[in-house]
């Protein structure tokens, strides 16, 4: 059941096209809504186990022979993510019901992708098996690709979709490499078992390589510097998708991965530096560039990048706890808690902000912040929600962002006291950079809400007359916004229920059970450095926000060509597209004769080369059957047929000559007691002659040039080579039996195992059924290919006729 | 130019059925004696090709209004389904089952899931061959 629950969304997706087409009166989203709601209820029942530090495991075998299975492992961390996925998922689906129009949109596609994503994401956070984890991981990339490109007739959507997939899938492949290395080191695919073996894995030669590879996967997915560039372009997706995938869930998969693997990798210096350092850099970078954006969703995208960096850096600091003695009693205990706590808070406030951005877009027709303003009186509810979300993001009380921001500062201050890995010299940078980033976070939070909702209304610039959104659309953001407030007042209940179990799962060496996590969240903890830092942030933030129009111009000074986006474009367009195309057009000349030349030349050189270098040729005439008169006769016919084909002046003679060759070969099969082959050969010959005759009409006329085709030495050599190769190979194969022939085995088992009598056919359908399956698949593809090719040409012809 | 195909048309009416039933026979006989889905399918297509040559594509399509693309797809699904079915009862992919039954009229006979797979092969072969011939033939 537990494993099946992962697959419920994707199974439910099968029904959607029918529901969408048959039940037009009801918005398809209402049916979809049931899925995450039911799953949310299901996962909530596990909370009473996880708060005691227990975990629930269920396994479903998939490929037992390769030791691959679907293993759902629910501990504090997985259950927190599962609840986020289904909880935010429910709200997003509810929101999308009012955002997407039943009559205008291809809703079934949208919801199928969304449910596919849900399955993939649940799989990522629950899989204990690294290979299936990777499988689900790539499935999230694919469903994200489909969702970003949902409005596929827009150029930007397609570009953004491709960009996100290129970057995340590339990272995913790196991660797969890391997983493979890791499982080779530990001798198991299970993450839990790998964690147990962590002390011995750390000393392995490839440990750091595996670490870096897995981090690449996490960093690309979680949009860390310098891979974040896909996230702003992913904003072309419908807003519910942005709220769900690109702020609350999918981009947190990297965070999840880092958290999950912390017990293994935290012992490494590289890990601490990379995770904390890159996280901090991303935090700063994202916050600096968020105020540059003019698109509402662009601001949110950069702010998401920045917040993800914040959580990431906290996880890096949390890894320091593994190097400190008795960390559970020192200041180092806060970082892990802050990371998880902020992750929850970020999901609530960023989700609501994205929904508000969607509402603004929906009701005014634009997301360009330069055209917006003065919406406060027109959209009071949206304004309130946006205010709550932004203040929480800025880290102001009484909202949950304040609490986790304070803890974040505590975590960053703790870095100062860490005296390993050169942190005694560089550690002081952490609180400073964190403070600067927080100031800019404050600025862009205010920029987002006040530029949109206050100031002067520019009604003439808006494509639509702005008005408040319908109630249904407001429900979800209001729920999220109220959570933002509620969490502020009951932080410790949230902490006990969700945060502590997850922290215990990340830091199993520190805590045996969630109860031992001795942290109480409080809004007021005296005049400590954190407090003064917050005061400084607010003061500096307000000042900078007030002066924003003055210094926003600085962004324009930074040359465009320096940006990472340019690098991506360069790699994609110049290196991969133009250069590669030029390279392949060197040999892809669109001439089938050329291609055949390549193929045959390659076969001949490889096979004869092998024969020669391995000294494999041998000749013996033992056990050869005597040559009878009819063998010779058939051979003569064969040769004459071949020569006729070769030298025929008209094509029809050539076809008949070819047919003669085929039928003669069939007769050979008859002589050598292979009735199945003979039968098949006969029929094939018949049909191919018929096909030739049919296609005859289309073949180009044998022109004069063709008739007096020059004798080409190269081609003659290749032809001769192929003949020689086949002859040599046949003689060698006959002369030496390195391994015993398999036919004995077939003879013995054809009745006992396969219950058949005709070995040839039993081989086809049973012994080597896989081959047949793939062959008929290829056959079907070829058939469809020919169909498409000719039909397309036909319709083009018709079109050009119309044009005349 | 109209050619007089009377003799060809008349004989193919009979020969078609002979090849047709031979193809069916070959298909079913495949497990014990020479034959099988592949040859059976080819024979069946050759019977159809004969009709196409004797008459023309339009007439044949009128007599047998079959969408050969669908036929290919059904064949593939059948083959894949037969191969995948054992997974749902806890056996490895592509396990075949067979047993002996007493059927009315025929008597004691063996039934194989392999035959279902072979039927898939048969359908794909007929479907693809006919798709190719039809599309090339129509394009004139």
Automatic annotation (TrEMBL), chain A:
Note the InterPro entries from the entry.
CPA3_Na-H_Antiporter_A, MrpA/MnhA1/PhaAB, MrpA_C/MbhD, MrpA_C/MbhE, ND/Mrp_TM, Proton_antipo_N
The way this protein sits in the membrane is described as:
Multi-pass membrane protein
Where it sits in the cell: the answer is: Cell membrane; Membrane
Q: Where is the MrpA C-terminal/MbhE domain?
A: 716-791
Q: Name one GO biological process term.
A: proton transmembrane transport
- Molecular function (GO) terms listed? antiporter activity
TM segments?
A: 6-23, 30-47, 79-98, 110-127, 133-152, 164-186, 206-231, 243-265, 271-291, 298-322, 334-360, 372-394, 428-450, 471-490, 531-548, 595-613, 625-647, 654-672, 678-699, 711-731, 772-790
Give the family from UniProt.
Belongs to the CPA3 antiporters (TC 2.A.63) subunit A family.
Q: Which NCBIfam families match?
A: 2a6301s01 (TIGR00940), PRK12645.1 (NF009285)
Know the name of this protein?
Cation:proton antiporter
From TrEMBL, chain B:
UniProt-annotated location(s): Cell membrane
Question: What domain of life is recorded for the organism?
Answer: Bacteria
One short Pfam name that applies is MnhB
Membrane topology classification: Multi-pass membrane protein
**Keywords for the protein's UniProt record, in alphabetical order:** Cell membrane, Membrane, Transmembrane, Transmembrane helix
Bilayer-spanning residue ranges: 12-32, 38-57, 69-89, 109-133
Na+/H+ antiporter MnhB subunit-related protein domain boundaries: 7-131
Gene Ontology CC, one term: plasma membrane
* Protein family membership: Belongs to the CPA3 antiporters (TC 2.A.63) subunit B family.
Q: What protein is this chain from?
A: Monovalent cation/H+ antiporter subunit B
Q: Which organism is it from?
A: Lysinibacillus odysseyi 34hs-1 = NBRC 100172
What high-level taxonomic lineage is stated for the organism? Bacteria, Bacillati, Bacillota, Bacilli, Bacillales
